[in-house]
Design goal:
This protein is an alpha+beta fold. The protein has 11 helices and 9 strands. The longest helix is centred in the middle third of the chain and has 28 residues.
């Protein structure tokens, strides 16, 4: 979308909301994900990431309004809280991505960009907070009640836990000092965000993103230079860490994951879980490469078909006898039994497949799939034989 126009931004917001709602729908309705990258944890991350981008577009839409430049302290506070909300959503998305169990399924550049945008929008939040404190510090023409109300608004934009530990603003000097602190934090966070971009080989190629980060930092730097050149302002002791600064409370979001997808469903209807057709996650995993299922026909000899199976959902070939019909037909160890005599067996138990083979008589038709390569080391391996994952030979089954 062309997000340089209000119409383009509105369209982008709708699309991001719908995407977030779709991921929520998948999380709530489908339980047989084909791989960990479609697990509830990752789907929640993706939904949060879509909402973060939608909220970012809301901020962009306000920035397109020329009246923003003429707003008062109330508008500066709103912008501070809007950008704080964007930052909190990117922070939440990053926390999902940084989970040790799922890092391998999420591109590193995604996590770095989410972290960089968290820093960037928190920096903007503190910049607007600084503007609210400093640009409207002139009390000329204001009644005492108006001054008190303005300072209450400045204090109340902080997070609740912070407000309880800081006293309200009582003087012009305190108002200015808080504004300077917000500005210092803004510059520190801008530097942190740009450092992430520089250190990521993919992100530093995004010239527009790098340019936007640099321009927004320059706003804060120019404001700092202006303050230092003003002899009427006494600069407070500089802070040394972002953690020393009060966090700003994000406003309640005005967007949410779109629920349009739910309108076609009633409470009594059940969604078909199309992921189930792919098979169990332990085997049919997007981290694995496997060939298309192939059909083999085996004719029993005196010793049987010459292979053994193990496991439940999925059932695997665990051994192939030398010179047996199975070996001649190309059956391989660790082949997955996809179907027996046309009956799909991806989710079948060991006992069910034994019964299907017993019913086939002298000839059995097997549909098998073979792994060709494993791309990641954290693929769940087939389980070893156990009471719930028995091993049996089809020859034994055919004795009945």
């Amino acid at each position: 979308q062309d997000r340089s126009t209000a119409g383009g931004v509105d369209c982008a917001i709708e699309e991001f909301e719908a995407a977030s709602g779709t991921f929520i729908h998948l999380n709530e309705k489908f339980y047989n994900a084909p791989s960990p990258d479609m697990s509830p944890h990752v789907l929640q991350m993706l939904s949060t990431l879509m909402l973060a981008q939608a909220q970012e577009c809301m901020f962009e839409k306000r920035s397109l309004d020329a009246e923003v430049l003429e707003g008062g302290v109330e508008l500066a506070i709103e912008l501070a809280q809007d950008t704080a909300l964007v930052a909190s959503l990117y922070e939440k998305a990053f926390d999902f991505m940084d989970d040790a169990h799922f890092r391998g399924y999420i591109p590193k550049s995604w996590a770095n960009l989410s972290r960089a945008k968290d820093f960037h929008f928190r920096a903007l939040s503190h910049y607007y907070a600084a503007a609210a404190h400093l640009d409207f510090a002139d009390e000329t023409g204001l009644a005492d009640v108006d001054i008190a109300d303005m300072r209450d608004q400045l204090h109340n934009m902080l997070e609740t836990s912070v407000r309880s530990q800081m006293r309200p603003i009582l003087s012009l000097q305190e108002q200015v000092e808080r504004g300077v602190v917000h500005l210092q934090v803004s510059m520190m966070l801008h530097r942190d965000g740009q450092r992430i971009l520089r250190n990521d080989p993919e992100l530093k190629k995004l010239e527009t993103l790098v340019q936007v980060f640099a321009q927004d930092e320059q706003m804060a730097v120019a404001k700092d230079v202006e303050l230092r050149e003003d002899p009427s302002i006494e600069m407070p002791q500089p802070i040394t860490a972002v953690s020393e600064a009060p966090r700003i409370h994000g406003r309640a979001p005005r967007i949410a994951a779109s629920t349009v997808i739910e309108t076609s469903l009633t409470a009594s209807e059940e969604s078909e879980d199309f992921f189930k057709n792919l098979g169990p996650m332990s085997l049919f995993n997007s981290a694995n490469d496997w060939n298309a299922p192939r059909m083999v026909q085996l004719t029993r000899n005196m010793q049987g078909f010459g292979f053994a199976i193990r496991g439940n959902a999925p059932v695997l070939i665990c051994s192939v006898d030398k010179g047996s019909p199975a070996q001649v037909a190309g059956v391989l160890c660790d082949d997955v039994v996809v179907a027996v005599n046309g009956v799909e067996t991806l989710w079948s138990t060991h006992a069910h497949i034994v019964e299907l083979v017993k019913q086939s008589g002298e000839t059995v038709h097997l549909q098998l799939a073979t792994f060709t390569r494993v791309r990641r080391s954290n693929v769940l391996p087939p389980k070893e034989p156990s009471p719930t994952h028995p091993v049996s030979t089809v020859a034994d089954a055919m004795q009945y």
